[in-house]
Amino acid sequence: MKKIVWTLSFMIGCISSMIAQSDELVAQTPLKYEYQVKESDVSSTLKTLSSNDLEGRETGQPGMVKAADFLEKILKDNNVQPYFKTYKDTLTTFKGTAFNVVGFVEGNDPVLKKEFIIISAHYDHIGIDKKGENGDFINNGANDDASGCTAVAEMAKYFSFHKNNQRSILFVFFAGEEKGLLGSKHLAKKLKAQNFNLYTQFNIEMIGVPMKRDYLAYITGFDKSNMAAKINEYTGKKTIGFLPKEAEYELFYRSDNFSFYDVFKVPCQSVSTFDFENFEFYHHVSDDFKAMDVPHMTSFIQELLPAVTQMANTAIHEIIMLK
Question: Running DSSP on this structure, what letter comes out for residue 273?
């Protein structure tokens, strides 16, 4: 028992130290960007992905295909190139037909472009509920994770427009997350076999509603890397904080970031604003568009632009594993 108490005290002390370090870095002046994320674009993308027409986007079902086609069109329309021969990369981890959607913006530095960051979210959800509630049978998955996909789409537009990334970037929309991280497991294994040079993965999960805390969001596996501290340095704000519930539920292992960490052993983490207190419709038919806070999402994506830009441009690997 003494050993357990000492271990917990040590972990709490380490996390407290990291939080303090993160707060100190906030004082630095962030880069400023004239580029503005449009609330109308955020609303439009989110509304389409969470519409009844997509029937809850269950992996392998027609609604998933419609969602993939829609995301592919966003990449095409914004001159984001496919990384493979096509945007759709068929899963080897799923019995039926399913695919990730993968776009690519090449880095503009002759050396750093050989390194990659991945900005990702899962576009699948859990489909139709046979029991339903109040005549609603479709699990639209607006927060989980159409909201994250909307953020990835906006970041893809931003980098394609500016072309200000020295490292190369993959924009990935995963299928099969709800089936056991199948899309990310497939892609991580495939890229590793191709000697893919991954610097870091920034995965986005459930950002549809704000938290009532003194920070904007949290990342999973807070103490595994210095990503939180570096994001706060890059944005010049206390953008990322530590959420004890995240550690309690071990969320680091429950989203698509873990598949890449497991294979590449580099900083791969998810950012979220779902804190177990601000949204009661997890895996529920009421997780739909009208429950989302679009102005919050728009400002959240805007605030992250300096962070993802710095990830793509620092001369050295500033984001590193700590344990």
Answer: -
Residues 6+ apart with CB under 8 A from 68: 88, 99, 101, 123, 173, 175
What is the residue type of 51? S
45, containing H or E segment: helix 39-49
The alpha carbon torsion through 283, 146, 57, 137 (nearest 10 deg) reads: 40
The burial class, CB within 10 Å (0-12 / 13-18 / 19+), for 162 is middle
How does pLDDT run across 141-165, given as a tens digit for each residue? 999 999 999 999 999 999 999 999 9
Query: By C-alpha distance, which of 110, 95, 265 is closest to 180?
Result: 95
Structure tokens at 211: 């938290």
Cis omega (within 30 of 0) on the bond before 145? yes
For 103-159, give the secondary structure using H, E and C.
EEECCCCCCHHHCEEEEEEECCECCEEEEEECCEEECCCHHHHHHHHHHHHHHHHHH
Q: What are the tokens at 232?
A: 């706060």
Measured from the Cβ of residue 139, the count of other Cβ atoms closer than 10 Å reads: 26
Strand partners, 172: 102, 120
What's the pLDDT tens digit per position in 13-64?
555 555 555 555 554 444 556 799 999 999 999 999 999 999 999 999 999 9
Domains of the chain: residue spans and CATH: 36-210+249-311 (3.40.630.10)
Q: Is the pLDDT of residue 175 over 70?
A: yes
Local structure of 93: helix, strand or coil: coil
Place of tokens 């001369």: 315
Structure tokens at 202: 């920034």
Q: What percent of the chain has pLDDT over 90?
A: 87
pLDDT of residue 132: 79
From CA 104, how far away is CA 114, in angstroms rounded? 13
CB 86 within 8 A of CB 188: no
